[in-house]
């Protein structure tokens, strides 16, 4: 069952004009934020995918470790793409690989100090942007839920 089929059962009534306007505004705000994120990442010498990967590696299981397969799942990419991504991040010294002590065939990914610093810089800028635009996001949820 795909996502569209999963959500069809939850739609109860046709959206109002206000709902459609709120959705359009939310989508616009989301696209602007994603474009902002790409630019900020580039300004810090990484791709937005690198930033997303660092964020996942740092937060998954309290930053103890993440396998390449788990990273692929979290980023919604294929395993081989995640492996290539980890190789590029490791080459940039933002993450390192270590052998899984319970399964020596499996490689685990850990963020480095340099990766943690880069992530902190990027996250601070992203959080400021989100806080600055919080009103737009809250307005969407107020409108979508009918709250005043």
From TrEMBL:
Coiled coil start-end: none
Pfam families from the UniProt entry: MarR_2 (PF12802)
Signal sequence range: none
Xref: InterPro entries: HTH_MarR-typ, MarR/SlyA-like, WH-like_DNA-bd_sf, WH_DNA-bd_sf
Domain HTH marR-type per the UniProt entry, residue ranges: 16-148
PANTHER family, sorted: HTH-TYPE TRANSCRIPTIONAL REPRESSOR YETL, TRANSCRIPTIONAL REGULATOR, MARR FAMILY
Name of the featured protein: MarR family transcriptional regulator
Organism: Methylocystis rosea
């Amino acid at each position: 069952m795909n996502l569209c089929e999963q959500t069809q059962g939850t739609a109860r009534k046709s959206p109002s004009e206000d709902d459609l306007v709120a959705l359009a505004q939310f989508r616009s705000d989301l696209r602007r934020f994603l474009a902002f994120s790409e630019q900020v990442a580039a300004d810090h010498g990484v791709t937005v995918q690198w930033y997303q990967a660092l964020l996942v590696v740092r937060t998954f299981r309290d930053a103890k470790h993440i396998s390449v397969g788990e990273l692929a799942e979290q980023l919604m990419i294929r395993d081989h793409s995640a492996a290539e991504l980890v190789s590029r991040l490791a080459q940039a010294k933002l993450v390192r690989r270590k052998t899984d002590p319970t399964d020596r065939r499996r490689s685990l990914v850990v963020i480095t100090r340099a990766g943690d610093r880069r992530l902190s810089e990027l996250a601070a800028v992203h959080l400021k942007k989100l806080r600055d635009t919080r009103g737009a996001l809250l307005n969407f949820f107020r409108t979508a839920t009918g709250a005043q």
